[in-house]
């Protein structure tokens, strides 16, 4: 397992979720109105990473959904880093083995020499 640190903005989002008494909405978690947080993709990225879970709603409307921290998300909210499984490249496919054709005896023409 590798360790990944999180940005200050994402750390603030996780801390706000941890401090909230009831699951906050995505709109409440948009702490700073930046172009990066305009469409709510940062929330679905946190769900994909396993740091947040949807309590209600879905990725189709992230600002209307409510969120809760996972165990990994609680650790990231406290320490600013979390463990993740790095993606390994897929092994190359095995080369195809050509099947040998059955050996057939070729009959040659008999040459008659006269």
Question: What does it look like?
Answer:
The structure is a single chain. Helix 1 packs across helix 4 (71-79). The termini are far apart. The mean pLDDT is 86. Helix content is 30%, strand content 15%. The chain is of the alpha+beta class and 114 residues long. It has 4 helices and 4 strands. The strands form 2 sheets. The protein has a two-stranded antiparallel ribbon. The radius of gyration is 30 Å and the shape is rod-shaped. Residues 82-114 are annotated as: Disordered. Residues 96-105 have a biased composition (Low complexity).
What's a concise summary of this model?
With 114 residues, the protein is α+β, with helices and mostly antiparallel strands. It is 30% helix and 15% strand.
Can you tag this structure with a few keywords?
114 residues; alpha+beta; two-stranded antiparallel ribbon; two-stranded antiparallel sheet; 4 helices
Show the helix and strand layout.
Layout: E1 2-5, H1 8-19, H2 26-29, H3 41-49, E2 52-56, E3 66-69, H4 71-79, E4 81-84
Helix pairs in contact: 1-4
The chain-level mean pLDDT equals: 86
Helix content: 25-40%
Radius of gyration: 30 Å
User: How do the helices and strands follow one another from N- to C-terminus?
Assistant: EHHHEEHE
What is the distance, rounded to the nearest whole angstrom, between the alpha carbons of the first and last residues?
Answer: 84 Å
| Beta-strand percentage range | 5-15%
Strand count = 4
> Major sheet: order of its strands?
1-4
> How is the biggest beta sheet arranged?
2 strands, antiparallel
**Uncertain ranges:** none
Tally of helical runs:
4
Structural class: alpha+beta
Question: Which term fits the overall shape?
Answer: rod-shaped
């Amino acid at each position: 397992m590798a360790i990944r640190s999180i940005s200050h903005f994402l750390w603030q989002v996780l801390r706000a979720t941890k401090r909230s008494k009831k699951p906050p909405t995505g709109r409440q978690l948009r702490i700073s109105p930046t172009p990066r947080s305009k469409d709510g993709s940062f929330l679905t990225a946190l769900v994909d990473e396993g740091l947040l879970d949807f309590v209600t709603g879905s990725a189709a409307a992230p600002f209307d959904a409510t969120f809760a921290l996972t165990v990994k998300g609680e650790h990231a909210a406290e320490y600013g880093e979390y463990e993740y499984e790095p993606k390994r490249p897929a092994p190359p496919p095995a080369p195809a083995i050509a099947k040998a054709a059955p050996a057939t005896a070729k009959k040659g023409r008999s040459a008659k020499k006269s």
